[in-house]
Amino acid sequence: MIYAVLAYGFWGLLPIYWKLLQGVDPVEIVSHRIFWSVFFLLGLLGWQGRWPELTMLLQPRAVLGLGLTATLLAGNWGLYIYGVNTDRVVETSLGYFINPLVNVLLGVICLGETLGSWGWLAVGLAGLGVSFFVWQSGSIPWIALGLAVSFACYGLGRKLLKVPALAGLTLETLLLSPLALGILLALTAQGQSHWGLGTTVLLLGCGLVTALPLLWFNQAAERLSLATLGFVQYLSPSIQLILGVALYSEPFTGVHALSFSLIWLALGIYSWSSWQRRQRANPPGNHRSPP
């Protein structure tokens, strides 16, 4: 549980880090994040003795599939950093609150998974919350929806590929690293890169802030049930919401409050119904290991 709280708490606090790079274009930040993450992820694989998992992925189907998921991931990272650095931290948190329910919807549509009446009620409430926000504000929260949909599609792609989590992410960053390096070299040649002392340290640290919570998450995932991880994951957008309102003085109006309340209610209903289903599938006295 400590590893899970560390991982999701760290992800929740990441807006503070990206705010320090507010003068840097999101494309440059994402390029640094991809390029330097490669070295940390390769180090993690070596430290955990998982090199064979990476070499097993060097097949056309896996490389093509992970190339597509890598594109979704890079887009998600870029959109998130753009949202944070244009003072929309509250909206980014909304996206990651919606994301679990988009995952559920994609599971029903694309994988034929079943969704009970409580699940449909949860999805409906979340949709009502977003619709109310659009109706009252007169604008679509495209950053929130883009983050929720892109990461849900990324998760669906990774589920279909069925590859090891850490090795898959390593290969994704490896596939993107030539493009990331090309962008960084082009920006440097044009004199548009940001290589000041403090900024350089922060840009180099992009790999560390990507790999470190991933290491904690992997440690937690090996020890906790998916149901427990599902509850803890809401820590991250909750911290982001608090940061946006309390630290960065972003507006949180009555429209925000009602929209978030509907989405929180939806998450509560879905989490409760999921817990109920797991209890029925694994009644007390059944000591099978969690999935």
Describe what you observe in this structure.
This protein is mainly α and 291 residues long. The chain contains 13 helices and no strands. Helix 2 (26-47) crosses helix 4. It is globular and about 55 Å long. It starts with a helix and ends in a 10-residue tail after the last helix.
Straight-line distance between termini? 17 Å
Tally of strands = 0
Described by strand count, sense and barrel closure, the largest sheet is: none
Helix content: over 70%
The amount of beta strand, in percent, is under 5%
Radius of gyration: 20 Å
| Helix and strand run | HHHHHHHHHHHHH
User: How large is the count of helical segments?
Assistant: 13
Report the mean per-residue pLDDT as an integer: 86
Shape: globular
**Poorly predicted residue ranges:** 287-291
State the secondary-structure class. mainly alpha
Give descriptors for this structure.
13 helices; globular; disordered C terminus; single chain; 0% strand; mainly alpha; 291 residues
Short description:
The protein has 291 residues and is mainly alpha-helical. 81% of the residues lie in helices and 0% in strands.
